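Q: We require from you a single protein entry containing the residue sequence and its fold in token form, and nothing else.
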Amino acid sequence: MTMRVMVVTGTRAEFGLLTSTIEAIRSHRDLELLLVAAGAHLIGDAPTIQEVRRRFEVHAEVPLQTPGETGRIADAAAVGRGVAGFTATIDRLRPDFVLVLGDRIEAFAAASAASVGGLAVAHIHGGDRAEGVADEAMRHAITKLAHLHLPATASSAARIERMGERPDAIHVVGSPAVDGLGALRPLGDAGFRDLGSPRALLLHHGAGLEPAMEDRWIEAALAGLREVAPVLAIRPNRDPGSDRIDAALAEAEGVSVHPGLVRDDFVGLLRRVEVLVGNSSAGLIEAAVVGCPAVNLGPRQGGRERCANVVDVEVPDPDAIVRGIRRALEVERGFDHPYGEEGVGERIASILADARGGIDLRKRIAY
């Protein structure tokens, strides 16, 4: 008897991370894939649900955000819609497991519906530290809702255990971000020229700060990046504050703005640019794995594990960012990282298959 695994994806970036796991679940003889696309996939001028559909069959869609509404209160309302939508989806699809990744509201809403509804929840990338907007709260709340923990690093696994989760339910699998990176070559010359042959890539999201501070960070970043023109910026995700980033990018001079790259092109571009600047976790994970120096701006990634490729800038000052970029350009490529070896998706699928019938849905602090 196969086990039905409902995988939840809410954004383009997280879908890229989940792809190897989705493929491994789909091909595993003891597992049946149920893919649910939600949240940010379903909104915008060019909804990224189309990218998901091109790769996999989508078994359900769950809207959360309301177009045009942003901010913390809007996110809270979206969570409520998401819990209701995931509850109805779970009732219709009848999965045995619900698999989520990370700390976004889509994952939190799905984990809440599943755990309260009496289903087993598996969580990838739990135990990480990252301030984000509400990441610390939601990521660790998902850990307490989950029954099977799939952390990326030993440090994250240790945090999960200290939170009172049973050691036998914690499996260090590595980050799915590493899967397939070895096979991804630098972006070809034609594709690189089409993107403006950038020296630097800007990937900066809203961090839930006061509007004036969000403005100061993106304005300082754009000013500091004049040091390494030409620059390509990728539009931010829908975190609170990202509307300020979008507005600044729309008015920026000398910066090309791209709505978003599929994962293969994004990684290929990381292998070509001289530096990644912004506050995305990609600077700390994917960039470290492929050997791209990164300048991390502000508090959004506060507490997350760092490799030797990362230079932190803690004040929204153009001169400080210029100094950070210069330091990053001096970093020698090739870094050790704690995120494991390729094959993460297959390891996750095997752990899920082995867990059939062995998951205790009762939650109890283990100490």
Q: What stands out?
A: The longest strand covers residues 31-38. Residues 26 and 183 are 21 Å apart (CA to CA). The radius of gyration is 20 Å. The chain has a mean pLDDT of 93.
